[in-house]
Amino acid sequence: MIILELFAGASACSRRVCCRRLPRAAARPSSSSSGYHFTDLSMMKRDMRERVSHLKDELLAYSDAAEKLEKMLADRGVLLFRRYADGSAVVELLRQLKSSPGLALQAFDWRRRQLDYWTPMTAEEYSKAIVVAGRLKNLDLAAELFKEASNKQLKSTSLYNSLMSAYMFNGLAVKCQSVFRDLKREATCTPTIVTYNILISVFGRLMLIDHMEETLREINDLSIYPNVSTYNYLIAGYITGWMWDDVEKTYRIMKAGSLKPDFTTHLLMLRGYAHSGKLDKMEEIYELV
């Protein structure tokens, strides 16, 4: 068993950013520059989400009629997706259709077939679609989309993370590790904490605690900063393995460090205490939820 306290030090440390002092004129942005710029961006994003939401509602209304669905995408989707050529509208549509993954993939496939020539696909669009395919247990499609994006020179860490997530969701630890090793060999991409969180999650789900803890050691050795999800996946893994001491130890580290427990953490602790029969501690956590 590894000593999780070694990890707590890294999470508790704040990152120091060194920067030179800006001139007075540059230190305080004027209302005509960055302030309005950020406001404009926020308004643009809100407008995009609203436009996508309208399209989503119309697609859901025709979800059982393939021809009408295609016509709706042609009538409403073309201008919308071209308007946001960075792929953000497609990614947002897939996000809003999370509860209807089959419909999400239909919309993505239409965009892929009809608009790729005029508005080239982005890595973010492929990444989101790979995750959706994984949740539908269509791993052949997930691998196909990954290969297609790679052939278009769209390889990115998020693309690898998405394929790893697809394998994780389906409990395929070996394939998940294989994609991870490919990522580490890439010259232009490097693993992030999201990558390592995926590994921790898949190992925890399969009760491969040694592998989970080895991944934790690698994070520590590489001086990669964990996040709340890192600890939550650790707690979930220990709960799956009925390792109550490690569950509580990880929770104590979170409370003592800078990464405080969130709603997901407390739900995990409730589940853990319920399984272990510690009703008094379960009541304590319940008051925090």
Task: Put the structure in a nutshell.
Pfam families: PPR_2. It contains 16 helices and no strands.
Protein model, in words:
By secondary structure, this protein is mainly α. It is built from 16 helices and no strands. α3 packs across α5, α7 (123-135) runs parallel beside α9 (157-169) and α9 runs parallel beside α11 (193-205). The protein is globular and about 60 Å long. Mean pLDDT is 87; it is low at 1-32.
Defining key terms:
289 residues, mainly alpha, 16 helices, 73% helix, 0% strand, disordered N terminus
What share of the residues does DSSP label as strand, in percent?
under 5%
Order of helices and strands: HHHHHHHHHHHHHHHH
The number of E-state strands comes to 0
DSSP helix fraction: over 70%
Low-confidence stretches: 1-32
SS-derived structural category: mainly alpha
DSSP summary: helix tally: 16
Mean pLDDT: 87
First-to-last CA distance = 30 Å
Morphology call: globular
Radius of gyration: 22 Å
Biggest sheet, open or closed, and with what strands and sense?
none
